[in-house]
Protein 1
Amino acid sequence: GAVVSQHPSWVICKSGTSVKIECRSLDFQATTMFWYRQFPKQSLMLMATSNEGSKATYEQGVEKDKFLINHASLTLSTLTVTSAHPEDSSFYICSAQTSVSSYEQYFGPGTRLTVT
Amino acid sequence: EDQVTQSPEALRLQEGESSSLNCSYTVSGLRGLFWYRQDPGKGPEFLFTLYSAGEEKEKERLKATLTKKESFLHITAPKPEDSATYLCAVRLSGGSYIPTFGRGTSLIVHP
């Protein structure tokens, strides 16, 4: 149980275009979903937290107009990188929290974004 | 100053050589400590949750323990397939449900 999927697993796009990444909790309803960014050999950097039906809460330094997060249902959250630039190239990982009480997070497999 | 510190940053072991990874935290009011395993190019995989000092949990060759200021992830007779980065995260009191992650320990087990 507690499986989280991400799509796509990797994507290459041209500078200036937008890319959407989907995160789905497959066998549970996620009260909260998180989006992380990870650079090579570094730990996870939290970008934003989203709850179903409400606006995402962004961490300091994360541009909300550039990284659009939509949490339309209890099983789906999307991250759209708008007007992508090469510096946006990174590994993006989502996670979902199973309940308000447990706080355990289950992570998706990640999406490798390369902007050329 | 990091609230969650993991040590060592990197660890190389021979197959069968048991060792421990450390995760220490500097704040009070722990509401949960989590251990994850991350393989290169993949998302972290949940391993354990510990809530109170003295608690222990085991899974195959891994055993996690918790004291008031730190947690240990003991690896008994490791195998090459245990090679990965091990992350710990803590959830603090005060209402925040967002865990704070350490920087991880990169473990390599040589055959």
Protein 2
Amino acid sequence: GENVEQHPSTLSVQEGDSAVIKCTYSDSASNYFPWYKQELGKGPQLIIDIRSNVGEKKDQRIAVTLNKTAKHFSLHITETQPEDSAVYFCAASGEYGNKLVFGAGTILRVKS
Amino acid sequence: GAVVSQHPSRVICKSGTSVKIECRSLDFQATTMFWYRQFPKQSLMLMATSNEGSKATYEQGVEKDKFLINHASLTLSTLTVTSAHPEDSSFYICSAWDYRKEEQYFGPGTRLTVT
């Protein structure tokens, strides 16, 4: 089955700096890669996703890149703000609507 | 994004009793919903996949007789924790697949405490 590894487990950055979180997956058949942000005591919130027919996607300060050959994808947050502090999870899915396999999560701390 | 609600947000129950958690997709129909369990400082663990009108598919190691799932309509799935014990205390989160957007949205979670 699919296995998703996520690094780093914790990341501290200064406000205004960029943050990068990386994930690798094992199943070459996976074709959907969402990223979720989870604040303490709340459910995960979808922030961006990418499908295997696209190499990069951007939404304001957030971007995701996908390298299918290497089987890894990354989340890039630019101009970080204190409210970006949260746990971020990457995930992979083998087909639309199918179950997601999650990475272990990254605790992002943005210091002001 | 699409809205998924869960009720209750918090519940405390006595050991041996059953607890029902509801998950609703508020602005879209969801033929597939998922139930997760999350321990403190850990990732989400998929418990089961709930398909409208059919039996749920449970992940390995999840007791289907203990965690009863019903997906009676396109907007509602329920998880019933039967004969709850303190080790069932956890954060339970549902999600729903929005086939229009081909994206999965999560509910706010339910904190279950069994005393």
